[in-house]
Specification:
Strand order of the largest sheet: 3-2-1-7-19
Bound molecules: ligand NA7
Number of strands: 21
Largest sheet: 5 strands, parallel
Number of domains: 2
Strand content: 15-25%
Length: about 500
């Protein structure tokens, strides 16, 4: 069989029409695959940028780097892109690249089982599909983590998770409580500090804050990007950004490196120089190392928490009552709105989908100890099933679009084995995954993420789950699969 004929006949299902699912659909279409179906549980593309719409939502990666390599965008408004602009960008790309006809919206895949050499998928509404190849592009942070706070259902005002923001609820002049100090809570406090009459930031753990500049691009700059394609491409791969990513990932891998010392000095100086009230400064001072939790990049958080309407509350929350939040000191903080910026279940990936591989092995059992996949992409006994942004991949303060594109480059070479007729089934060998996972865990414990803090980077055993090596190591791995690690049947 020629590769071309293979691509025309193979049935490929992509799960999810977010950044990575769209990338897969575009690349599959370009490569000549003719039988592509994308299933999307919602009614629009965009994934995390569709779901998150909270005030102040901004990506912490520079706009031009957080852009598909093949579709640079001269019109980004700021150095860091606002969430709504990213959503518009993805919608534009979905139209421009003609992938909308491939997407079945409002169709949530609930089961995906490998039987008789094919994947059989079913949606919540009962639609059934058969596929030769499945690409899971379901995202990482998509299942909200609701806190277990007594009385949470008794609150008489508006209460919602930040990824389910209720835009009917007025904010101006309101008494607002934000629970959580991750990137989300920090961005919301920065956005609402002058709109709320009272803004209480409930902080369980303080965060190190990396200062950034986030000015708007001038019209002249945008015009230059529009008229000079080479400049636009340069912006996508700006040497300073690439050097920062390299420095940052080197620091993560080696907590005793000069790069890490520089990060620590920068965030410490940010705190010391920009928070004037000594009591507040101590409240905001973390007792763990910088970058142990995902670093918060913010141009204005310290400015925001020093606004008159804002108060940082460090007393433990003991309950939520009809009128507000009760803290352990006995005080009732009366509120109109409570935003739960309490994060996500970072170990969900494709779940709650019921996925069953070769020989009846259930993904939930395979992942009983922790989510794992060879190079974040392939699992033994899950043939022709590939993940983008799967477990143990690089997730950090750099562009996940770039990561997904590199992963696609790798997956595409695995698909080619099937399309060209060299084999019918491709998945990683058990031993290769075991070796990879053991080396990964060993390296992960030595990274800054394992230096003693709680974060969504850690698995249930407290071991960092993200890529524990340098960015360059990832780039090298993604350049070409080591086929000896794969079962090609
Ligand atoms: P994160 O980074 O997981 O932050 C969640 C925050 O919520 C964090 O400050 C938690 O405190 C806090 N939290 C969680 N449960 C509770 C309870 N029960 N009581 C008080 N505080 C609580 O989520 P984000 O949405 O901010 O960011 C997720 C990622 O999205 C981000 O890293 C970017 O990649 C984009 P803790 O620190 O655990 O004490």
């Amino acid at each position: 069989m020629s590769s071309e004929a293979g691509r025309e006949s193979l049935r490929v299902v992509v799960i999810g029409a977010g950044m990575a699912g769209m990338l897969s659909a575009i690349r599959l279409k370009e490569s000549g695959y003719k039988n592509i179906k994308v299933f999307e549980k919602a009614d629009r593309v965009g994934g995390t940028w569709r779901e998150n719409t909270y005030p102040g939502l901004t990506c912490d990666v520079p706009s031009h780097a957080y852009t598909y390599s093949f579709e640079p965008n001269p019109d980004w408004s700021h150095i860091m892109p606002p969430g709504a602009e990213i959503q518009s960008y993805f919608e534009m790309v979905s139209r421009k690249y003609g992938i909308l006809p491939l997407i079945e919206f409002n169709q949530e895949i609930v089961s995906c089982a490998y039987r008789d050499g094919v994947w059989q998928l079913a949606t919540k509404s009962g639609q059934k599909t058969t596929a030769d190849i499945v690409i899971a592009a379901t995202g990482v942070l998509h299942v909200p983590r609701y806190p277990h706070i007594p009385g949470i259902d008794d609150f008489e005002g508006a209460l919602f998770h930040t990824s389910r923001w209720d835009h009917q609820v007025p904010l101006d002049g309101m008494r607002i409580g934000v629970i959580g100090t991750g990137s989300t809570g920090v961005q919301i406090v920065s956005a609402l500090c002058k709109r709320a009459s009272k803004l209480l930031h409930f902080q369980r753990t303080p965060q190190w804050i990396m200062p950034i500049e986030n000015r708007p691009f001038t019209e002249a700059e945008k015009e230059a990007f529009r008229s000079d394609y080479a400049l636009l491409k340069y912006m996508q791969n700006e040497p300073e950004y690439l050097a920062n990513v390299e420095r940052f990932t080197n620091a993560i891998v080696n907590p005793e490196s000069p790069e890490m010392a520089e990060i620590e000095a920068t965030v410490l100086h940010n705190l010391e120089a920009n928070v004037t009230d000594p009591a507040l400064r101590e409240k905001l001072r973390p007792n763990y190392r910088a970058a142990c939790k995902r670093l918060i990049f913010s141009p204005d958080f310290y400015h925001a928490v020093q606004q008159p309407a804002v108060e940082v509350i460090t007393d433990k929350i003991s309950a939520i009552e009809a009128k507000g939040v009760r803290t352990a000191d006995g005080k009732l903080h009366e509120l109109d709105v409570i935003a739960l910026a309490t994060g996500f279940h970072a170990d969900r990936f494709m779940r709650p989908m019921n996925i069953v591989g070769r020989g009846g092995i259930a993904l939930n059992d395979f992942w009983a100890d922790r989510p794992k996949a060879h190079l974040a992409i392939s699992m033994p006994d899950f043939p022709n099933f590939f993940m983008l942004n799967g477990p143990n991949g690089p997730v950090g303060n750099f562009s996940l679009i770039d990561i997904a594109e590199q992963q696609w480059h790798y997956i595409d070479q695995l698909l080619e084995q099937i399309a060209s007729g060299k084999c019918r089934e491709v998945c990683v060998k058990k031993q290769a995954l075991e070796d990879f996972d053991a080396a990964r865990i060993d390296a992960a414990k030595k990274t800054i993420f394992g230096s003693g803090c709680q974060s969504w980077y850690l698995d249930d055993n407290g071991v960092p789950a993200t890529w524990p090596w340098t960015q360059q190591h990832f780039i090298d791995e993604m350049s070409e699969p080591k086929f000896e690690d794969y079962e090609l049947i």
